[in-house]
C-alpha cells in the first residue's frame, strides 16, 4: 500500500504514554516513505514499524518529530540528507532491518541530536567494532541497542577511530566498507496530489522543490501549486521555469 495523503489522513493519531502526539502507520505494507508533508509536522512520534520500507529518505522538513520507529522493515540504506529534514530527532528504532556494513552507518553521524538508537537484528551487528564504531559517530548517544553508552566506551571509540577531521586509518578503512546491495535506480515516490494543467517538467520541478523545502509554509505553498495546477508568475523564475 502506498503512503498517500489519504492513508495518512485516515491513520490513528493519539497522545501516547509519554504525552507525545503519535501517528500510527504500522503494518500497512508501505514500500517507501512519501507524502509525509501531509502530516503538517503535527507529530512528536511516527511509527512505521512492520512495513516494507527499503530506504530512510524522502522526508519533508519535520522539526517537531522526535521519535521515529522503523523496526521490522527492509531498510538497507540511510540517506545522510534525511537528517537535515529531521533536525530534532532523538530516537531511531531500526531493529530487524537489512543494514549490512559498518560504512552504511556513516550517514548516522548527520543526526546530531540522536540519543536513542537500536540496530539489533541487522547483519551489521556481527561486524567487528560494530558497537564502538556506531558510538563514535553519535556524540550525544545515550542508549544504544538498549544498553547505556559508557564513558569508557566513548574513550575507547575515540582511541580506535579518532574524531571528525582526524580519523584514524582504521576509521577510513571501515568507512569504505559500504554495502553493494543498494540500487540507486529505484523510482522516486511521487506526490499523490492531482496535477491537471501542469506539464511533466513543471510537476517534477515542484516535487523536487517540496523535497528541498525548509519550512512547512513552503511545503504547503508548493503542494497547493500541484493541487491547483497553476504556478504564479512570481514563482516560475524561482522554480527555473
UniProtKB/TrEMBL annotation:
This protein's record includes keyword Transport: no
Keyword Nuclease on entry: no
One BP term from GO: mRNA splicing, via spliceosome
Which keywords describe this protein according to UniProt?
Leucine-rich repeat, Nucleus, Repeat
The listed locations are: Nucleus
Q: Which SUPFAM superfamilies match?
A: L domain-like
Protein name per UniProt: U2 small nuclear ribonucleoprotein A'
Source organism? Bifiguratus adelaidae
Amino acid at each position: 500500500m502506498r503512503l498517500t495523503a489519504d492513508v495518512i489522513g485516515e491513520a490513528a493519531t493519539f497522545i501516547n504514554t509519554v504525552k507525545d502526539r503519535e501517528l500510527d502507520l504500522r503494518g500497512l505494507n508501505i514500500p517507501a516513505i512519501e507524502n509525509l508533508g501531509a502530516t503538517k509536522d503535527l507529530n512528536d512520534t511516527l511509527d512505521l514499524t512492520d512495513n516494507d520500507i527499503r530506504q530512510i529518505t524522502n522526508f519533508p522538513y519535520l522539526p517537531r518529530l522526535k521519535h521515529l520507529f522503523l523496526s521490522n522493515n527492509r531498510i538497507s540504506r540511510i540517506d545522510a540528507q534525511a537528517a537535515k529534514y529531521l533536525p530534532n530527532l532523538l530516537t531511531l528504532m531500526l531493529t530487524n532491518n537489512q543494514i549490512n556494513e559498518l560504512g552504511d552507518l556513516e550517514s548516522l553521524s548527520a543526526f546530531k541530536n540522536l540519543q536513542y538508537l537500536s540496530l539489533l537484528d541487522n547483519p551489521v551487528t556481527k561486524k567487528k567494532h560494530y558497537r564502538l564504531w556506531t558510538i563514535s559517530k553519535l556524540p550525544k548517544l545515550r542508549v544504544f541497542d538498549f544498553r547505556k553508552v559508557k564513558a569508557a566506551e566513548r574513550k575507547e571509540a575515540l582511541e580506535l577511530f579518532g574524531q571528525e577531521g582526524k580519523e584514524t586509518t582504521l576509521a577510513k578503512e571501515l568507512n569504505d566498507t559500504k554495502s553493494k546491495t543498494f540500487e540507486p535506480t529505484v523510482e522516486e515516490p511521487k506526490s499523490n496530489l492531482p496535477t491537471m494543467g501542469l506539464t511533466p517538467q513543471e510537476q517534477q520541478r515542484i516535487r523536487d522543490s517540496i523535497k528541498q523545502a525548509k519550512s512547512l509554509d513552503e511545503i504547503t505553498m508548493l503542494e497547493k501549486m500541484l493541487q491547483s495546477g497553476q504556478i504564479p508568475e512570481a514563482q516560475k523564475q524561482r522554480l527555473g521555469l
